[in-house]
Amino acid sequence: MTATTPTTAAGRRQNNCETSPPPPFTANDIILLAQNISATLPPSLSSSNLLPLLHSPSPSLLFSLLSLFSRSPPSSSLLTPVLRSFLRLFFSRNLPRDLDSSCLFHLISPLLSKLNHSDLSSILDILSSHLSDINDADKAQALDLLPHLLNLANPYGELIDAFLEKLLSVSWSKALLVKMCSLIRECPAISRVRVSEFLRKIFDGLRDADIQDLPWLVFQLLLLACKGINSVSRKQLIADLLKFFGEPMKAPASVVRQVEGTVLMHVNFSIKQDPSLGSEVIAVVRSDLGTFNHFAAAVLLSVARIRRFNESSIGALKSVAVGSHQDCKFAR
After folding, report:
1. Domain residues for 270?
2. Is residue 278 located within the same domain as residue 323?
3. Measuring CA to CA, which residue among 202, 204, 227 is closest to residue 216?
4. Does residue 159 contact residue 128 with C-beta atoms inside 8 Å?
5. Which of 186, 209, 232 lies at the terminal end of a domain, its last residue?
6. Separation of alpha carbons 288 and 312, rounded Å
7. Fewest CB within a 10 Å sphere: which of 59, 75, 214, 241?
């Protein structure tokens, strides 16, 4: 009996070693693993092991982790907690300052297709809860996920409606306004269904935008008009644009002239790319005298430089000018 006791104890120790869980992965383990281009996520990796590493992540850890995710897409039970944790860190500005966030969001976007209904809802909830925190271009990068998220949520109309209602209800910072002008045409849920509501929101925001940002914002709106929004929304966009630039601007006259000149250049270019837009501009001015002002006149003269619109544009300008003059005479 005495001779067999050490052997039995050694066997027990060996069994304990065989059944004990493997040591948890460290940040260095993940970084080293990602350097092997054929390596994939280990099956033993769990959210309970991974999330503590994201409390103070390095750029190398984040890029390595997303690289591994892209090679062997994880289950939503692992991916969703990681994405939620990343977004919370991003909005709280607890990510490293030297991190290239745009590249990270570019890597995250393809992984979203692995999320199910409840996972999509949780990601959209985080974005909607932080809309009021988007006060600069860096934080606005999170919305780069929005086109893909809304496209994936298309079968779940209630998710899209809830998010868009929240987006329309919050006050838009200048950064959020700029971001939405660039994203709206990439989101069919907005550009086809809710575009009129978003156009009203955008034009309300333009009044508080920096005057130097106006040409770029107008160019984004013209791209939206050229992409094929419905006719009613296109007419609304053109009319609102003409009325907006017909109002006085709080800026030196030289700056206003420069901005209007750049906007006219964008209008001219857009019409050359989509001639139907030129016909729409002329039709709007003819049908709605409320849109006729100094800027509308400048637009018609600019459009008249395009050969196919020369006669119709000058004709519209004469017609509106004569009509306005007669109305003025009758008013006296």
Report:
1. 210-332
2. yes
3. 202
4. no
5. 209
6. 16
7. 75
